[in-house]
Amino acid sequence: MMQINPTQLKQLIEASLFVLGKPLSAKMLKDTVLVDFTVSRDKIKAALDELQQDYQDRGVQLVKVAGGYRFQTLEVLSPFLQPLWQEKAPKYSRATLETLAVIAYRQPVTRGDIEQVRGVAISSHIIKSLSDRHWIKVVGHKEVPGRPALYATTLEFLAYFGLDTLADLPPLSDTESLQAVFSSVKLTPEQSEEQNTNE
């Protein structure tokens, strides 16, 4: 096993986070890029804490999401950075977002459970769209006739919405809470109307 000094440790962690571009936990760092070094998880955590401090007043910040750490731009800079992205952010219908919310707050749930909460049938397209985004996955089957699939959210869901754990979801005390959950997701009136006619 090789030794690594605190400066080298910070540099290697920082570079790893930039290269991967998705959340990395202290355990993942220890088991991958730091596997050949004698370094405790506490030292890795201390280096991550220092990096968070180093980036606190910068345009890019180190944040904890989905059980790991990743670099992301300051939210207030997003409108100014928009011209750099060639692709427009995908837009989601109200039905899709409501379905995702039911899964997030009541998981694991069946399609029938979701339909009961929403009061309307769910098109297969909505489930496929959420699965294709890797925001939901089948985690088992309910032990009832037909054995319907049980859906739950994924780490990709947490990462996309900037959540560390499901406990970070806002409480659903009123209708505004639900809108706040998906405030970063674009929804067009046309798509909302189109989805409502397809339900």
Helix content: 40-55%
Number of helices: 10
Termini separation: 59 Å
Order of helices and strands: HHHEEHHHHEEHHH
Based on DSSP secondary structure assignment, what is the total number of beta strands?
4
> Segments where pLDDT lies below 50 for 5+ residues?
186-199
Textual characterization of the structure:
With 199 residues, the protein is of the alpha+beta class. 46% of the residues lie in helices and 12% in strands. It contains ten helices and four strands. The strands form two sheets. It has a two-stranded antiparallel sheet with strand order 1-2. A two-stranded antiparallel sheet has the order 3-4. Strand 1 and strand 2 (68-73) form a beta hairpin. Helix 1 crosses helix 3 (41-54).
Task: Kindly summarize this structure in a few lines.
The chain is of the alpha+beta class. 46% of the residues lie in helices and 12% in strands. It contains ten helices and four strands, in the order αααββααααββααα.
